[in-house]
Amino acid sequence: MNGEPAIDVRGLTKRFGRRTVVDNVSIQVARGEICGFLGPNGSGKTTTIRMLCGLLEPDAGEGRCLGHDLLRESRQIKLRVGYMTQRFGLYDDLTIEENLDFVARAYGMPTRRQVVDQALERLGLAARRAQLAGALSGGWKQRLALAACMLHEPDLLLLDEPTAGVDPKARRDFWHQIHTLAAQGLTVLVSTHYMDEAERCHRLAYISYGRLLATGTAEEVIEQAGLQTWELRGSDLARAAELLQQDGRWRVVAFGNAVHVSAARGADLPQWLARHAPQAPWRAAAVPTGLEDVFIALTEHAQDNFQ
Ligand SMILES: Nc1ncnc2c1ncn2[C@@H]1O[C@H](COP(=O)(O)OP(=O)(O)OP(=O)(O)O)[C@@H](O)[C@H]1O
Fold first, then answer.
1. What is the pLDDT of residues 2-58, one digit of tens each?
2. Could you say which residues form the signal peptide (predicted)?
């Protein structure tokens, strides 16, 4: 497939009944790139991922995945893709080894024993091979699931919220592994709700209500949003948030002991406060706009349009 992107799809659309849950989505991901797929619950990430790996047929759209036609060559795509589903997709009542062996059988691997042994060694689970998968902690289950979807050495990994419910250390180890794999040429599309994980991706795609609202590097996504942000400090910030939300231009997000207030470039928060709350004990300082500020603004805006 040479210089061709690993994922190159246009106009992907999926309807369930009368609802369009993925609406005209186009995504390109280069080989070796880690693309973060973000968006609120129910925005269409899993449905898009399932169309990309040939598990779900799109109602409209076209393109190629790993050089194969998305509509006509879904079998070839499935063989070269590793898909880690949102919930632990392995069997709790099989041992670690049996789970890996089951996956190796499903791919019809001739060197099954060897592949499973190597995976157990790599995972550091060789001594615990006979332990039931259901007895593993969340972090170890996630490692096992990743090892299982890497057994057949895929060229593209589709990871659906792989680190949900996993502690920070396990998440950091996981991302280290993902970057190592990407450096070896593996392409990764990973859905996540964590902003720190979004920042670890080479590129981002943000979807809301089935529509792709932003794509690019984190810096590009922030720049395209055209927002400016202030950090507001002082007492009684709940009242500040309430007051600001009455005026549709401000997006307000609590950040520890401060609130972040974002608006389209050109708005002037200190001026607005001087006019609407001259006696209030709040100090506004301009801060760089972060990804979370952008995604909240994008989602609220999409919701306005939807309603
Ligand atoms: N098989 C199905 N039949 C009907 N509706 C479905 C089906 N699968 C998904 N949906 C709906 O499509 C919408 C998008 O779901 P999807 O799982 O793709 O979202 P998501 O972005 O992955 O959400 P989350 O972040 O919560 O995992 C949701 O409203 C969901 O209820």
1. 679 999 999 999 999 999 999 999 999 999 999 999 999 999 999 999 999 999 999
2. none
**What ligand 1 atom has the least distance to the C-alpha of 210?**
14
Task: Give, using CA atoms, the residue closest to atom 9 of ligand 1.
Answer: 47
**Is 201 contained in some domain?**
yes
- Cβ of 46 less than 6 Å from ligand 1: yes
Q: Which atom of ligand 1 is nearest to the CA of 39?
A: 21
Q: Does residue 305 lie in a domain region?
A: no
Please indicate whether residue 255, judged by its CB atom, sits closer than 6 Å to ligand 1.
no
C-alpha–C-alpha distance, residues 81 and 55, integer Å: 11
Q: What is the predicted pLDDT for the residue at 122?
A: 84
What interface predicted TM-score (ipTM) does this complex get? 0.96
Residue whose pair of structure tokens reads 């794999």 in the numeric block: 181
Q: What's the pTM?
A: 0.91
Assigned token pair, 273: 């406060």
Do residues 149 and 160 make contact, with C-beta atoms less than 8 angstroms apart? no
Mutate to test the pocket of ligand 1, among 43, 206, 209 (most ligand atoms within 8 A of CB): 43
Asked, for residue 296, whether it belongs to a domain, the answer is no
Domain encompassing residue 235: 227-288
| Residue that terminates a domain, selected from 193, 221, 249 | 221
**Ligand 1 touching residue 41 (CB < 6 A):** yes
Picking from 177, 178, 113, the residue whose alpha carbon sits closest to that of residue 151 is 113
Q: What is the CATH number of the domain that holds 256?
A: 3.30.70
